[in-house]
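[User] I have long wanted to understand how a fold can be written as tokens. Those tokens are not coordinates but codes from a learned vocabulary of shapes. Could you go through the record with me and say what the backbone is doing? Thank you; the sequence and its tokens follow:
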Amino acid sequence: MNEPIRLLHLADLHIGMENYGRLDPSTGVNQRVLDFLARLDQAIDYGLEHQVDLVIVAGDAYKTHNPSSTYQRALARRIKRLADHDVPVVLLVGNHDLPTMTQRASSVDIFHTLEVPNVVVGREEKLHSIQTRHGLVQVATVPYPARQRLLAHDDYRGLSVEELDRELQSLVVANIQALAAQVDPALPAVLTAHLSVSGATWGSERSVMIGRDAVVLKSVLADAAWDYVALGHIHKHQSLNGDACPPIVYAGSLERVDFGEEGQPKGFCWVELARGKTSWRFVEVDARPFVTLDVDLRQAEDPLLALRQAVEKVDLTDAVVRLILHLRAGQEQLVRDADIRPLLGQAAFIGGISRDVERPARLRLGTAAPTEMTPRQLLQRYLETTGTPPERQQALLACAEEIIADR
């Protein structure tokens, strides 16, 4: 009996993401970029330790389509490490890898141009036959469906955005079905795609996505031709097909992009691929924690002390932290940034300190302007607005009348 093919499924590396980081003086690289690279190293280490046969990066290797030479070198070193161990790598083109013009190269095209051994760039809809240590694997690549591709053809010019989206969706579906028809049923087959699938749960990537998406129905991917569907584009890890075959899985991103992904586990998928009986599991990595501290200090006599006590209850070690304070008017000066930051000293980065200050409602004096009211009327209206008991109102008004009369 043939051994299963060991597949490492990664996605959305986003090398170059610098949110919530500062320059690391020892490397000259933003600390958050180093975080993303460290998670990639962790995934590669796991793969090599478990004798991985094939690695699929399901799109968005970089944050932008024009990464710096430093970031390109960082990815190339890691791809070479896999290639040196005779592990084929599939680099799928995602939306962040695409240039704004279809004539220009994507951020990962250099691997294709140089014909780097053991590296396949998924730049078009194509079925690839890849030799691994445990046999042949068929990998169908479906890069991000960009609307620009349609606009390059005269037949689609002049269509509205909605019409283009429908045409694009139909084209993607037809291409996936055509790829499935090419599959040799005797060999294991993987479909890898960078796109949106109906029923998937979005994370915070909507804030970093480029343009609108053509959404593909899950039923289009749930084809018996495939033994595993390796998806990228949505940062939240999720399985869309339950226990049914084929598994349809978003690996999710390896690191958190922002606080919209706070609490989401991050990692990659380890797949044991076999025709008709694939198994897989999600492997979590040590992604940097994001922590939101939401502290209500409105009832505190000593708000800084109350904040210190609240902070001590939460582990902020090496985390990216944001602080939301709820204060009464007049407390702002008691909780200054200069006093707060030392309390968050265990954090790797402070993502923001915001204050929600409760302001007292302005007194309503009725329709009459204050200048048109007597001192007694003004005082009476004030006492009524502040809820002073009637007996107390009468006593205060009597005293006020004596004072006014003496003036």
Notes: The chain is about 30% helix and 25% strand. Residues 370-406 form one domain. The first helix runs from residue 31 to 49.
